[in-house]
Amino acid sequence: MSALARRIAIILAVAVIGVLAGRFVILPRLLPHPFSGAVITTEEKVPPTELLAGGGGTLRLTDFEGKVLVVYFGYTFCPDVCPAILSKLADALDILGDKADDVQVVMISVDPDRDTPEILGEYVTHFHPDFLAATSDVATVNRIATIFGVYYELQEGTESTGYIIDHTATVMLIDKKGNLKVVLPFEGTAEQMAADIAYFVG
Amino acid sequence: MFRSAIPIAAIFLFTLWFITFQPIQVLPRIRLAPGFLLTDQTGASLSSEDVRGDIVLYSFAYSECGPECDDMINTLREVQNAVDGIDVGDDAEIRFVTISFDPATDSPEVLETYAAEVGADPDLWTFATADEVHVSNVVKAGFNAWYEQKEDGSFAFDPAFVLVDGWGVIRGEYFYRTNASDTEKLRHHLEILGEEIRNSHGAASLAYEAAHLFLCYP
Fold this sequence. Notes:
The complex is a heterodimer. Chain A has helices at residues 3-30, 81-96, 117-127, 138-147, 190-201, and strands at residues 38-39, 50-53, 58-60, 68-74, 103-109, 132-135, 152-155, 164-167, 171-174, 180-184. By secondary structure, chain A is an alpha+beta fold. In chain A, helix 2 links the parallel strand 4 (68-74) and strand 5. An eight-stranded mixed sheet of chain B has the order 1-10-9-4-5-6-2-3, sandwiched between helices.
């Protein structure tokens, strides 16, 4: 092969690589997925704290690496917000279809005094058979909630409800490597949640 | 093939230019700020939900800090006095929250006096604390700011500022002994954040997302 032909071959090869890189690497990066929540850029691992699992036993949020983990802080006596969020998450899993196999939803109770593991296990599976729940002692729940940016405060309720708990109602998406990546607002729809979860399922 | 490659080559060159010259800069989305429930200098509750939607510059101190806090307080006061000139759009405000890690001493009354002494504008700058355990969770585990009580009751600590956006995401951490240039740096970072917030809707937001993707940080 002459020097000229070799040079042309190199230029063509570079051009082909450039076109392919542009199409499959750069273009997708230039059109970012429009997340419906706040994105965390850095890699921030979830804490490996051992929690009491709903239904019995223990679990750690780090147990679910390899799956997209969806974490929500709520409580079973919650009159409106928690059922609404859990219903939306159940709808999101339905939308995801087979991809839902790679997703695990966990509700962490901020009401450990009333939410025993038995009550919790029954409560979350009412929304979706694959949902899990967890809680711990007050100090551990407080520490975990704080780290996840969740505030909660006991408020006076009625005689029938008992005390109620004001709490942050965001939904946290954790990628398959165990990094907290997106915080979804309460107002998000099931479709938006499904789209954002699907992004991490891949 | 060459004709179809032209737009992609143009995008490639544009991307290269974007990354090299950074016409848009953003602050990194570091991690979630902690959730908290504090009591402020008026005795009212202050939770992380109360400041959702606002840009908050957090700092950590205690009222008996004395000259050790002078640099930090001066910086905060200077930034406070500069916020009028920083446009963060109509939906957000810039606020300052100083969390005391000495709840045993820093009652609301003490914090109110301290706030007045340091020239804090009560509409912008809140002083607050909580019980020892919660303060430790929030300041140490949540904000990664270090402090420790010494035997004489005073505190060893590293002056720190943490900048949090309206989503409750930490966008700036400044862990070092403060000095005069902090004011300019914080003001500049608040302007960058304000610009991103003002452009967070519509097509312009895509350019800011691209700046995040390509790590166009100051």
